[in-house]
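== Sequence entry ==
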Amino acid sequence: MARKFLYLVVILIVLALAAMFAYRLWGVDLMRRAMVPGIGFEAKRALPQGSYAARDMWLARPDMPDNPALWTPAGYAADPAAPAAVFFIHPTSYLDRSHWNAPLDDKAANDRAAIFLRGQASAFNAAGAIWAPRYRQATFGAFLTGRDDAQRALDLAYADVDAAFDQFLKEAGDRPIILAGHSQGALHLTRLLRDRVAGTPLAARIVAAYAVGWPISRTADLPLIGLPECAGPDQSGCILSWQSFADPADPALILDTFDASTGFNGQPRAGTPMVCTNPLTGTPDSAADVGANQGSLVPAADLSGATIETGLVGARCDGRGILSIGNPPARLGGAYVLPGNNWHVFDYSLFWANVRADAQRRLAAHGRTRAARPTPAGPLGGIARAAG
């Protein structure tokens, strides 16, 4: 019996290695077959005007009980008096290939989104109150194909985010604003910056925009976004972005897709450098060792919580704008690491405590800038104060 058991173990190991080898060779193609919808895009009507006035249209907002964005690991606490208003756009949590866009009431997608809010949006709960909308997000498979259906799905998702942003601005009042998102959420965030913020008085209220886990071309996108790349750790009114890879990194899948696309300025993104902010330093194109990492989130096995551990990874910007974390940490990763040693899922959690400190630091800098800005005298002064 013992010998048969050992044979079984050997067989399982061989099968596991074979599966891993197949994934390395054909992983992306297998994902496409499994995740891209086999049906055509289903056109949906715009949400009724005012839909986001309803509390159940949000995954997080200040007046919600059991708000997942208020979660913190031991040793940290949300600040209910924090002065900023945070608009957070969650990443893709809909994995079904039966639709191009997630139904708003899809429980599995909403449960996954709540997990993302605990691990990502929570980094901002010491800087401000957090609003995070439900939206008819494009399914995961939309990012694995060049079909027109995929862009239609993303356009539908963005329309919901845009409507939610209108309601957020009404509820945020005149507070300073932090914008943040990850992956699909960061894609929608860059479009929101281009369409709704760039060249408007609203830009003066932006503390920072964290467009994490999505490539941004410095030459083809950034000039149209309306915010400069953050050049220093105490700068406000700027944008941060990074994409995490462990060594040996192979960002070909990202770069091939990026290079085949067109930037916000209508020019090809091919060969252009990407924004790379080092979250350990708050500066672009820099390097820092593990000693600069104030704390990474290490999740529980069932994802019900996480603990903070310091010194797990360092970070350096490499090549055209990939953030390398060096050797992968032993206690993280596993099945959540994407092809090419892409640690996309961990873009926030690897640097959670540093992102938290970064947001607070930039909020303080923004406050100093606003205090130093002169307000015109006379009746136009009131308009300037309302806009700024």
Remarks:
- The chain is about 35% helix and 15% strand.
- The two ends are 76 Å apart (CA to CA).
